[in-house]
Amino acid sequence: MAEKRLQPKNVDLRPDRYDRRVVYEKCGRAKYISHLDLMRAMQRAIKRAKLPIWYTQGFNPHIYIMFPLTLSLGFESRVEIMDFALLEDIPNEEVRERLDAQMPEGMRIVSCAAPVHSHTEITHADYSVRISSDETPAKMAELFEDFMGREVIEIQKRTKKGTYKPVDIKPSLDVRGVSYDDKYLSLEMRLPAGGGFNLNANVAAEAFLDMYGLKADEICVERTKILLENGEDFC
Amino acid sequence: MEVIKNKLEKILLKATKPARYIGGEIGSVIKDRDKVDVRFAFCFPDTYDVGMSHLGMKILYGLKNNVPNWWCERVFMPEKDFEALMRENDIPLYGLESLDPIKDFDFIGFTLQYELSYNNVLQMLDLAGLPVLAKERTALTPLVVGGGPCVCNPEPMSDFFDLFILGEGEEVNLELLRLYEKMKPSNPTKEEFLREAAKIEGIYVPSFYDVEYNEDGTVKSITPNVPEAPARIKKRIIADFDKVYYPDSFVVPFSEIVHDRSVVEVLRGCIRGCRFCQAGFIYRPFREKNIDTIKNETKSLCEQTGYEEVSLSSLSTSDHTRINELLLSLSEYTDGENVNLALPSLRLDSFNEELLERIQAVRKSGLTFAPEAGTQRLRDVINKNITEDEIISTCKMAFEWGYTQVKLYFMMGQPTETDDDIRGIAELSDKILQLYYDTPKEKRGRSVQIAVSTATFVPKPFTPFEFEPQATEAEIKHKQDILKSAVTSKKIRLSLHYSNTSVLEAVLARGDRRISKVIYTAWKKGCYMDSWDEHFKFDKWLEAFEENGIDTAFYANRTRSYDEVAPWSHLDYLVSHEFLVRENKKAHLAQTTRNCKEGCSGCGIKPECGGVYCGGKKTST
Q: How far apart are CA A223 and CA A71, in angstroms?
């Protein structure tokens, strides 16, 4: 009896696994789902879709899913990635359809394929940022030009210990487009992401607002690309 | 709708766990508002995390939304941070499905699950932009209705509600909404509608009753003042429980809630009759579902929600007449689907190796038992029919299986309790601890912890203890001191809970209509979210009692005579007054009463209510 209890629960499961990578959207109401909540939501969606999902092979088997890059609470994206493995080689389009049918409002499964790149190859991500504040968009655009002209842009980054240390984000800030309409200042930014140094688009936006004492009304962020070192799309 | 949605966009990220305030969960029901004739806001007067765990809401939400032209939405009490943001931005309380303000709905329904949530009802009505007093809401809609266990004595809340729904809601909710749907086109006045509604069995319209008081402050009489209102309002009951509506889908929240899993109700009512337990009397008679029904409901819920855990809900799951077969049959399904089967509410005397193995398969951590009293004498008084031998043998088995934590729940301040009974708690805990040391080293776990928790007994209506006084704060403190000095081992951890909330709970539970004024005054002074320690303001409550000339001791600490007119005496919960009196007398003689399975004790429930042991229909597979 005792020996039986010491064995992992699903040790007799087939070892064959078919890795899958899906690209999904997280927009609208779904942008308020936190990363931790998203893990649970996706596990449940997979169960509802009745996909023959591969469980981890330990004492406490659980559905194996991986997200290479977290998306901050409140950000939208159409390029999010989730990895999992199946026990059967189900066609990609069928996997996409079955999982898509289980998505909550604001989420959609865009595509499904075998993974190509490894998570560690991610170095950057692109973001569209729209800002409205107590200043007009035209004036904000002017100030932003001044902002980007600075030699050093220092922010206080929270360390794991809970203390703050000054970090210069200027070298990491790759602004690829500035425009405005009657409501928003719009920025296109490429920021470091992945296993190494990460810069959050909100942090960059707030560094700008803080420097000029602007009071944000709304900051809307959408992740538009996840990129490799050589500038190609992660897939 | 767009207005609230746009406003929310700007504030949601400033709130903690914003996913609770925006809806859009899988399983939530979205309808076209132009094709809907009756809109119902189901309000749980506590936070999302608590309210979303509540089974009754899931049942009634599904039930009403099953009707194509009715739309039932969920509403919860926002946390204080988000409530402040809502008020700053002029966002009224809204339904999570449509994001429409609930003040424009036809019905606003509250479930009253515990007394300390009463003031949240006022706060939510206010946040919705409505007057909290029923008499100030003169239009037909929204009709503010209440249900749940606390409406067995809704008198303290009678100023705020238009009507109460007594008993089980699965049929009467439909009848009430159908009546409304039928009458709505003719634009009735509120009173016209309420008069018709009062004819439905189980509907109680408090404004149709006059209450008179005796000089000593007790209730003299409660009499109807319109011909439509019956002298006694009978609670509703589902006689054919196996066939009752049960949802095949739940709203699956994004953020983690208290009970984040599928729940299947396996039985309703309880055979035991523990004399302190309100649920044991107001949900009578004992009815159960067939194994196939339970299995189908489990399967369909697990498939629809994707939950990895299903829990069996009841007052005492092991009392199902075919419990072993049920578990065997269910685990065939759950094991195959990697779903955990959780079994809360198991009775101590039902423990056997087979059951322990089932729980073991899920997680081996701690066992929790509620002996409720430290001595056999007092357990007999409260009719908690478990013996010390049963407690000992179960704990012995648990330690041999490697369990290292045992949690024990006790109550303090029960009728006839003496200092010896309190010392008995320590003695019992010591005996259990010794069992661990007596367990061979190779079998037992590495260390041991006995956690002893005590709570203050609160006498409740429709129990044999409804006549009893609650122990005063000084008495409880004395009992706690005795227990503290009687416990010597470091392996026994005591959490002696005394909170002033027990006093408030006692007053609200057995209060009359005069308590409405106190609730109103306390709410005006900022009292709500009273079940949350950090928000509970007892000093403000005391001021409210004082200003209204109400003595808490009159309601909490007074022995009530058997022939006193109880504030809830016009409500019929089917268990007879004579039975409660008989049980009270037996309690004082420390005599136990057999459970329904062993033989009928004549509680007054009629066979046609469908009770398994009342001569009603027996269960089949």
A: 8
